[in-house]
Amino acid sequence: MRLIYQPLLSVITSSLANGPLILRHELGHSIIDVGEEYDGGFAYFGADSYHHLSEPVPWAHWLTESSTAHTKRVERSVMPMQNYAWAMLNTSAPWSTSFSSSGQYSRYLVRCSISGVMEASDLRVELDGKDLGWVPRQDIGLDRWHYDFYSSSDSNLSAGEHNLTFTLLNGERIGTAQMCSAEILEFGDESEYAYSFSCVLVMTDDLSQIRANPRVLWHFPNVRLFLVASAGETLKACLGSPM
To answer: Does 51 score more than 50 pLDDT?
Structure first.
């Protein structure tokens, strides 16, 4: 069980690995009237959602300086593939999916979530036939976990078709091994997407100060199920959002 959400109630999994992440996420829904922050959802609204750069920034009151003193920009990224397959794996045939890239982005990320596989030797994850070197989180057991595979700063996806494949290597995992979700994200270069920067949280008595770059407001786009873009202020590396 992952969650049961009601306006005044959040029930979460007892998982030691996933429980704290889900609790933080669902409490946000319970305490504040906000939608989602991850890609592939359908509800982007509330204080953490921003749709038009011409409008005031909803979270400006958290900034050390006035939002008018900052440059606002939407970071350049795209999600060419997302698949919540929840596919049970077997050894007779790999699970795979294809997607197209424009070849016009500088870097990419392969993100997947897997459950029921306990050893690195049980499963191989490949992009275009290249082994990504999947290793399960230590002590994850049969629980689900998200895994990220980042390309190098000078490695992009070429224009055309690509293939992501999950091959179960251990027949003893049949019945538990599951490819829960997979997605591909592509990013512009450092001048187009703030891929790496230092983020400092300054927590005062009134929780009024959050500082990243003092002169730039980054807005990281979310991709809805129907490919309508929205921007959110949360960044996984900075605020620990459970993507």
So the answer is: yes
